[in-house]
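Supplementary Methods. Inverse-folding protocol.

Structures were first reduced to a discrete structure-token string of length 218. This string, shown here, constituted the complete conditioning input.
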């Protein structure tokens, strides 16, 4: 599930809003010289709003520059030069996390991203593999769960984006908690879900003596 992000330039105080993590719709984040803005380039057209068609290597690898809200402890890398004034490097702030259901699950079953190598998909696939390794999940099965193929040409040089990693991790533990996991739940994932969500589960499933319905309103 993706995030809204804003950029900020300490020199001109201007910035842009864009999205990270929405790989079924976006090729990635592009610092566009033509628009003088940080933009998302749609997968469907492959073109920026100014008409430019950035190559895969021209997209911005935000993995080490965009924090997980304000809670990231690791050192962040400075962003690219401000596309508006070129006077300073951009900084970023993650503002919202929005829910779009399971990424890659489209209503009409279309998967226009299959067979295409692009940065947003590569950042997600790399983070997914990291989650699999942490929680003992089968990467092949989890790629299938997200209807995703590996953008092989872009994986080797990837680095881990903390917001994307945590997002996937939260999604899989939430799926287990809700009893909606359609993938094989490893022992480790069971344990992690119980440790992290046990308290919430107890709240959601009140033990006896059961409250009468009206007592829930108090
Ligand atoms: Zn600026
Ligand atoms: Zn543009």
């Amino acid at each position: 599930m993706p995030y809204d992000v804003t950029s900020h330039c300490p020199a001109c105080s201007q910035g842009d809003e864009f999205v990270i993590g929405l790989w079924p719709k976006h090729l990635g984040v592009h610092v566009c010289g033509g628009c003088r803005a940080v933009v998302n380039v749609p997968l469907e057209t492959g073109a920026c709003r100014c008409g430019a068609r950035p190559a895969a290597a021209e997209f911005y690898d935000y993995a080490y520059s965009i924090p997980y809200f304000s809670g990231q402890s690791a050192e962040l890398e400075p962003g690219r030069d401000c596309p508006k004034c070129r006077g300073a490097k951009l900084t970023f702030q993650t503002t919202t996390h929005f829910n779009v259901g399971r990424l890659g699950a489209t209503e009409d079953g279309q998967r226009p991203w299959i067979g295409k190598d692009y940065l947003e998909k590569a950042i997600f696939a790399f983070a997914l593999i990291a989650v699999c390794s942490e929680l003992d999940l089968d990467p092949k099965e989890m790629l299938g769960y997200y209807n995703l193929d590996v953008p092989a040409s872009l994986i080797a040089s990837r680095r881990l984006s903390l917001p994307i990693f945590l997002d996937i991790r939260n999604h899989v533990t939430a799926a287990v908690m809700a009893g909606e996991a359609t993938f094989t739940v490893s022992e480790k994932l069971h344990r992690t879900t119980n440790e992290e969500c046990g308290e919430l589960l107890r709240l959601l499933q009140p033990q006896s003596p059961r409250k009468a319905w009206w007592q829930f309103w108090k």
